[in-house]
Amino acid sequence: MGLVVGVACLMIPRLWLLLASVYRICVEYTPIIYPSEDRLSPVSKRRLSLVGRKTLVLDMDETMITSWLKKSGKKPRNKPRVAHDFKFYLPAYEATIYVYKRPYLDHFLDRVSKWYDLTVFTAGAELYASPILDFLDRGRGILNSRLYRQDCIEMYGTRAKCVLLASPDLCNVLLLDNSSTECSFNAGNAILIKSYEIGSRDEALINLLPFLDALRFMKDVRSVLKHCTRFEFFSTILESVAQ
Ligand SMILES: *[C@@H]1O[C@H](CO)[C@@H](O)[C@H](O)[C@H]1NC(C)=O
Ligand SMILES: [Mg+2]
Prior knowledge:
One of its GO terms (molecular function) is phosphatase activity. The chain has helices at about 1-10, 15-30, 40-50, 105-115, 125-135, 205-215, 220-225, 230-240; strands spanning about 55-60, 65-70, 85-90, 95-100, 115-120, 145, 155, 160, 175, 190. The strands form three sheets. Strands 6-5-1-9-10 form a five-stranded parallel β-sheet, with helices on one face. The chain has a single domain (about 30-240), classed as HAD superfamily/HAD-like (Rossmann fold, 3-Layer(aba) Sandwich). By secondary structure, the protein is α/β, with parallel strands linked by helices. The radius of gyration is 20 Å and the shape is globular. Helix content is about 35%, strand content about 20%. Magnesium ion (MG) binds near residues 62 and 179.
């Protein structure tokens, strides 16, 4: 029986795609229940009222989604074998962009948007990123604050983000990003997440929820996050240069 199914899967691409989408639905289902309303004890409520509302700055590519680009007229190479969530044609690139959401992204955005003000900060170009962000937002209005490539700082051929553009108060801003160079100006505010590989079984977003739930109660997020970075040395140099 297993052999027959195996052969059928190899032979019939359509069946393969169907099975892939069934798998996706199973992966999207989340066994971790994080209540949709924020039921807080009076003590927690009081604690929260004593600290500032925080801004969570989210990277897009390889943090929330990973995309794959197909140039028009070219033979596609290495097309991912899982179903995409969204595609659009980008005339400026003469290419079709296929977008793959990281598992649990919708659930993640639902929860964190209750705890934080969200800002998306992507090193991607605006005309590429904005259709994707509109798709991810799904009309909820939670991803309306956006910063793009033109807002990054270029240094030595790489790009870095300065979270001060999203929020002027470093005590109350966090940056979630897969790239340590893009985080390097704000190492003390950064949470590094591993890059999302299309089709991989990935639980990085859902596993971050308890951590992000706790951080919103901090007076200064850096008191915790500075211990989570391997780039303290670099940010110390930057700070001393800035003074
Ligand atoms: C992180 O994501 C960016 C796109 O935002 C990508 O260029 C980079 O290769 C990724 N990985 C790492 C380890 O930086
Ligand atoms: Mg990235």
